[in-house]
Each structure stands twice: as structure tokens, then as C-alpha cells.
């Protein structure tokens, strides 16, 4: 049975384009959101390459899944399935044990849930693929064609030393290739790529962090970014040859590079495993990061230099997830009326928001108390799991009348080729303390056409935060990018102090 790849280029496509999926541990759920955005933008590829965690998304894609299906499978994956313990006798060896875990959970649970099927990968049509593994015997990287891939090689591609044992095939042992390279640009170029789309989620900032785990991560970053920078320099020199009419790999034009990356480093795998971030949030952020790049990209791409994958340093902040839902109706412009009409028609909207206050000091000092917001919307008349391309959160923003403050939740998204903007406000005003709960949990919401709240209103309703949703929010609340316990406690204290002071001022001091 044939297996046509969703992102495969059409035969008439003149520019040879390669999709390069770098690693990033379990956090590569982020890449699924990126692929959804690239797919919606009409980008198609002749070749895809995967290294380390990126091989999982390449495997999903070449197994026949659409980007939407990939996103849904990542959202519904139990991240704890990645962890599978070795036999007890291995741990009794202490420092001489083979690894901290084995591949059983990945083979028996993760790959099946993600839809990764080696047989279907080998039958993929329309787009060729290459999966990178480290040949430990020769200390070399091997780019395995998708037609030769099997389960053992897929497991080897994500078998990171210390965490998983190598995979033995005959006399050769295979491992994750991240220590050699994390993105095989050379393979894509040798296959004739004229346009490289690198999807990169390994951290890359100038800051060197203390602590053994952080420094283990730094070693991966050094290997990954260091080798990539060498390969980008090689491409730059190759472009000089192409300009002189010498094109050894058949390019008809100079090779251009596009890079989709987070603005700031993604949380590390322990944060994912402990629930400080979830796959749905990673998918949403990947989509927003890709949409941001697509909105500003130039035809020439980005410079072939170390700056291509560099990110901004992340300050200590606060992060949490919040879900609000309620009755909502298209065609209404007033939230209360929209809620009544939505109840009569039994149409509800759910807003799944991930709030990332990137710098708690700046957030509190800002008179508007604004930060970024990512998330997605469930609204059956338009669709489910609709990711936001951009968003805004504000806490106790001054309102347009004395004694009124707003909690603001806004996000923009696309549906059916049109831009929409969901704008919600909780109205916190000077009143009796008895009104504090409904005021801080009720979101009056309007849906606008366009990319902001200036567009015409095409729907409205009232969303609320229930007790169970509040408990879920509390379980995700944490300090982000805190290098020490002291910094973490300080950030939490800063936020709680600001929040409490604002409530006391409004409901007890009434000013």
C-alpha cells in the first residue's frame, strides 16, 4: 500500500527544499506545531532529515501522519511512557551500570502511540528521508535512507548515553548522534537541497549555568551548535563555488537557510516530565514560533553564521497553565447575550492558555503588567485545538474607569484562511470581598475578525474558571528559569505578593 507524505513537494516544484529536524529530547513535541504552521503556509519538501529527537517527528511524518495528526498524538502522549527501568541487577552495579533506563517504554508505548511505523516509513513516497545514527565502533555519523530504516535503528537514533544503552547490530553498536551532530545539513545539501528549513530547539544562549545537569546540557549544546556552525560555514563556501559556476551537488542557485527556533530556550526534559510544561503547550509554542518567523522571513533566508540558532537569555519568571470554558455564540457582540444564545444552542468555547511571565521583576514594574500568552482554542463551529499565532496576558491592568482593573487574555489564530482574535477580560473592580471569586474567575470574551481587537466583533460569550480548573492551574504554577532554589522562591514570592497586594487594595482597602 502506498504511503504519500503530507509535506511532500509536488512534481512541479522547482526549488529543491529540505526539512532538517534537529534534536531536543522529549521537547520535540514543539516541532509538531512548527510542521503544522509550515504545512498551512504551503511549504513542501523533497527531503527530510532527522537527528536525535527529530527522528521521531520525521518518523511520524514518513509513517503517513498529517501535521494535525502529529500534534494530536503528541498532546495525548503520556510523557512518563518514555521512562522504562533496567532490570534491578543493572542498578546493583552502581557506577558500572549500562544506563539509567532501557527502550521498552519507547518501543511498546511511545512509538505505537505516535504512529511511528518502520514498515510504513520504508514505503514513504513523494519525499525522501534520512535518519542519523552514531556508529560507535567507527565514531562516525551514518545517515540511513528511509528505505533502509528499521525499529532497531529508530531506537538507536534516540539512545543517548547514560540514559539508554546502545543498540547492537552484529559487531557494531549504535547510539544517538547528537554528540557528533544534531542537524545534518551536509546530507541535505548533498541531496541537492537549494533551500534548507532547519527546525531547531536545542538551547543556544551565551549564559553558562552552574550545576552538573546544566553542564551536561551545555555539552550537548556545544556539540550540536558547534558542528552545525562548521556545516553552515561549509555551505557558505559552497555558495561561493556555485556563484563561480562550480556546483558539485547540482544546485542551480545558491543555497538559502531558514531557521525556525524558540525566542528563548525551551524548558528542559525534567520540566516536561514533572508537568511544568506539557506537550500541548509545546505544540502551541512551536506553532507560534513558526508563525512569527513566517511573518518576517525574507526570500534570502538568514545568514549562514553562528547567529542563525542563537536565542535570547531567559530571565527568572513565572509560568502556569489555565483553562477557561463557557457558552459562546457566533453572531453575538455582547458576552452575556452570547452566553445565553450559546447555552440555548449548547455551543461552548474553551480557551487553553499557557502564561509565561518571562521576567517577574519587569512584569511587576510594568504599569500594564503584561506578558506573552500561548495556547489554543476549542470551539466546534470553527474547530478543535486551534493554535494561537500570538497572544497577550495582563494582570490587574488599569481599566478605563476609576476602581476598575482588568485581567486580560487575548490570542490570535487563523481558521479557513481568515484571521481571528479572541479578546477576553476579567473585570476586577472596587466592591465587597464577596464579589472577589466571581470577578477573578469570569472572562467576558469577544471574537474579532482580524489580527487584533480593533476588528469587527463576530461572536461573544462568557468563560469561567471552575474549582477543578483552578486546582489544575495551581499544580502547574512554578518559577521558570530559576538557577537556584533561592531565585525560585524569590520569583514566587514576588508574584504572590503582587497578586495579594492587588486584591487587598481592591476588595479590602477599596481603592
Task: Furnish the topology, listing elements before pairings.
Layout lengths: L2 E2 L12 E5 L7 H12 L6 E5 L2 H9 L4 H9 L12 H4 L12 H11 L3 H5 L1 E2 L2 E8 L4 E6 L5 H6 L10 E3 L2 E4 L9 H6 L4 E5 L12 H32 L12 E5 L8 H5 L5 H18 L20 E14 L4 H11 L2 E10 L2 H6 L4 E10 L3 E16 L5 E12 L2 E12 L6 H6 E8 L7 E8 L2 H10 L1 E3 L4 H24 L3
Parallel strand pairs: 1-4, 2-3, 2-9, 3-5, 9-10
Antiparallel strand pairs: 5-6, 5-8, 7-8, 11-12, 11-18, 11-19, 12-13, 13-14, 14-15, 15-16, 16-17, 17-18
Helix pairs in contact: 1-3, 1-11, 3-11
Keywords:
511 residues; alpha+beta; 8-stranded mixed sheet; 34% helix; 27% strand; globular
What does this structure look like?
The protein is globular and about 75 Å long. 44% of the residues are buried. The mean pLDDT is 93. By secondary structure, the chain is of the alpha+beta class. A hairpin with a 7-residue loop joins strand 17 (442-449) and strand 18. The strands form three sheets. Strands 2, 3, 5, 6, 7, 8, 9 and 10 form an eight-stranded mixed sheet that branches. Strands 11-12-13-14-15-16-17-18 form an eight-stranded antiparallel β-barrel, surrounded by four helices. A two-stranded parallel sheet has the order 1-4. Helix 1 packs antiparallel against helix 3, helix 1 (29-40) packs across helix 11 and helix 3 (67-75) runs antiparallel to helix 11 (279-296). The chain has helices at 29-40, 54-62, 67-75, 88-91, 104-114, 118-122, 151-156, 185-190, 212-243, 269-273, 279-296, 335-345, 360-365, 436-441, 467-476, 485-508; strands at residues 3-4, 17-21, 47-51, 124-125, 128-135, 140-145, 167-169, 172-175, 195-199, 256-260, 317-330, 348-357, 370-379, 383-398, 404-415, 418-429, 442-449, 457-464, 478-480. The protein is built from 16 helices and 19 strands.
